[in-house]
Automatic annotation (TrEMBL):
Transmembrane regions: 21-38, 50-71, 382-400
Keywords, alphabetical: Membrane, Transmembrane, Transmembrane helix
Protein name: Uncharacterized protein
């Protein structure tokens, strides 16, 4: 138990003690005043009834008043979109996994160095140690680079050591296809309107640093939309396939991303056979979306899940949307894992209301943050309300009895 929890528990206990002391003091003062006032007892009884009723109304109002509150939840989704609120190695959990293939769409230029290149009968390229790739402006296609092991029978290394995203970068349409062992994600400056990748070379700022570890065996490199500038290759086709043997002394390929980028990672089947894959333990995020847009309609990505706020729980069924009103919404993602069902993620944040339903514009279910729930549990609130109801009932009985006695005395005097 941390210091904040201990302090909160101590405050609750102090409040309980003060409540009992006030009750005892109230009864003592009431008895003294009733004795001293004598004939003015009815007035004092009315005053007590008014005060307690007023307190009951205030308590009822506070109970019905919604306020920002903490929530936590868990979902399994087939797609996840969010904006990172910190600089972080996003796919930390992949640095120990051997990949079968890596593909990038949108890199405008890249430099590859190695022990050997082999492309048809291009002697000059086959003799060089470094080649420079640049987007072919004469081809109206998005440049694509694909790297995979040439020989399946020979053990080779192909690992993503680092995809370190800059703060405020959007991770769009993160998907996992278990049947194809395929991870897809789309990095951009902002949340994308759709999952159809659209690159933009007009704006540029740092999106990510990427580092890939490569083994000593040859790799097949497929290029689309590129031209080899150095050494100069003439009459290049839309698609080129060359063999690349990386330097044995330098096992990494490092580059900086400054334009939107689409990434596809194909895992080896034996890496995903039995266990779930943990991508990241914790991420600070903003603008998390568990839905996407298809033309003018919104489509939910949630397979199943649940959210808890104070003592309330909201279950999310398949095809239902999950939304948040007020507050920051989802602020942290925990234990982002790849499972056979999809992407499993835990999350927490703040909101006034959590909503779910089949209709995006008018969800049918909700739970809300109660103001008093921030300070006391449901059992404590029920106890206080019951206590006030008991006092009001007792005072009403006394008031009726006092009124009846007074009426009876008046009749006797007449």
């Amino acid at each position: 138990m941390n210091i904040v929890q201990k302090l909160f528990t101590l405050i609750v206990k102090i409040v309980e003690i003060l409540k009992h002391l006030i009750k005892i003091l109230w009864g003592f003062i009431s008895s003294i005043v009733m004795i001293l006032l004598g004939e003015h007892r009815t007035f004092f009884l009315n005053l007590k009834l008014l005060i307690v009723s007023f307190l009951s109304i205030i308590l009822f109002f506070l109970t019905s008043f919604s306020a920002l509150n903490y929530f936590e939840g868990e979902v399994i989704t087939n797609q996840l979109t969010f904006v990172l609120d910190e600089k972080k190695n996003f796919l930390k959990g992949l640095d120990d996994l051997n990949l079968r293939k890596i593909s990038f769409w949108g890199l405008p230029e890249l430099e590859l160095s190695g022990e050997k290149f082999n492309y048809k009968n291009f002697t000059e390229l086959n003799q060089t140690k470094v080649i420079k790739l640049k987007k072919n402006e004469g081809q109206n296609i998005t440049p694509q680079l694909e790297i995979k092991s040439s020989n399946k029978e020979q053990e080779n290394y192909l690992k993503v050591l680092l995809i370190e995203l800059s703060k405020s970068i959007a991770v769009n349409c993160l998907k996992y296809d278990k049947s194809r062992n395929l991870i897809e994600l789309y990095l951009d400056f902002d949340i994308a309107k759709s999952c159809s990748f659209q690159t933009n070379y007009n704006d540029s700022k740092k999106i990510a640093d990427i580092e890939i570890e490569l083994g000593n065996q040859p790799f097949d490199v497929t290029l689309q939309g590129y031209e080899i500038q150095q050494p100069k290759l003439r009459n290049q086709t839309n698609s080129m396939k060359l063999e690349w043997t990386h330097k044995s002394g330098n096992k990494t390929l490092d580059f900086e991303v400054i334009h939107p980028l689409f990434i596809e990672l194909e895992l080896n089947e034996d890496e995903t056979k039995d266990n779930d894959i943990l991508l990241q333990r914790i991420l600070s995020v903003t603008d998390t979306r568990l839905f996407h847009q298809e033309q003018k309609d919104y489509v939910t990505n949630i397979i199943k899940g649940s959210v808890r706020m104070t003592d309330q729980k909201l279950n999310i069924e398949p095809s239902q949307f999950l939304q948040f009103q007020g507050g920051k919404g989802i602020e942290r993602l925990y234990n982002i894992s790849l499972t056979s069902q999809g992407i499993k993620v835990l999350f927490n944040g703040t909101a006034r209301k959590v909503l779910s339903g089949l209709n995006f514009d008018s969800p049918g279910y909700n739970i809300r943050g109660e103001f008093l729930a921030k300070f006391m549990s449901k059992e404590q609130r029920i106890a206080i309300i019951g206590f006030l109801i008991a006092i009001v009932s007792t005072l009403l009985i006394e008031w009726i009895k006092e009124f009846s006695e007074k009426l009876s005395n008046n009749n006797n005097e007449d």
